[in-house]
Write a structure and sequence with these properties.
- By secondary structure, this protein is of the alpha+beta class.
- It is 15% helix and 32% strand.
- The chain has an 8-stranded antiparallel beta sheet, with no helix packed on it. A 3-stranded antiparallel beta sheet has the order 1-3-2.
- A hairpin with a 4-residue loop joins β2 and β3.
- It is globular and about 55 Å long.
- The chain starts with 8 loop residues before the first strand and ends with a strand.
Length: 214
């Protein structure tokens, strides 16, 4: 009889197949604490819990409250996981659209484009975030917009991030120098936030796309 407390562990190759990702992506997630591997043996071989992989697929890894209010000067965020089983293809014309003089439209559809494939590069580490606030309007992020956030990417200077600051979520532009790190709003009504050593700060994810109605 199999003990109830024994959990199935999968190899790196098996985990990559389930999550449809590259081995280097899994290693990065392990380093960032997104998906912790179990190590054993003198070589430190990696194994992955089957339950952790299932949680990644369902979007339950590192869950956050559905409605996070972060104060009057910061947007409220609603966070959703990615449904990896959904597929919605639309006709795609493989031609550019002129912003000057009109050109004849193509009569032939080149192929069909899946919107998930267009905006979601790492499904298991991607979340959709709904914004409520105006601190980033000059960056084209309006209240009610949906952000595509990738937690597997490395934060870089001047990228727009979802930050966890003293237990509260906010979306800001990351700016750092040799002397200090700041979270910059894209609205002159708000002042930058200087991140100090006594603050509990974490880059939760990188904003890769903004989806809004025009």
């Amino acid at each position: 009889m199999k003990p109830k407390n024994i959990e199935k562990l999968l190899t790196l190759k098996e985990a990559c197949k389930i999550l449809s990702c590259h081995p280097n992506t899994l290693r990065k997630w392990d380093q960032k604490g997104i998906l912790n591997a179990v190590r054993f043996g003198s070589r430190g071989d990696r194994r992955y819990r089957e339950s952790d992989l299932n949680n990644m697929i369902s979007g339950a890894t590192n869950p956050a409250p559905n409605n996070i209010i972060v104060g009057a000067t910061n947007p409220a965020l609603k966070i959703y996981g990615v449904n990896q089983k959904s597929k919605y293809e639309l006709p795609y014309f493989n031609s550019t659209v002129s912003a000057g003089f009109p050109s004849p439209a193509d009569d032939v559809v080149d192929k069909k484009l899946d919107l998930n494939e267009l905006v979601v590069k790492h499904p298991a580490a991607t979340f959709f975030v709904r914004v409520d606030g105006d601190s980033m309007i000059d960056a084209g992020i309006n209240s009610g917009d949906m952000l595509v956030v990738d937690r597997s990417l490395k934060p870089r200077n001047n990228t727009i991030i979802i930050a966890l600051l003293n237990g509260e979520f906010t979306v800001k532009r990351l700016n750092y120098t040799r002397k200090y790190l700041s979270l910059i709003p894209e609205n002159t009504r708000y002042t930058p936030i200087r991140v100090t050593e006594d603050m509990n700060f974490e880059v939760w994810g990188i904003v890769t796309h903004v989806l809004h109605t025009i």
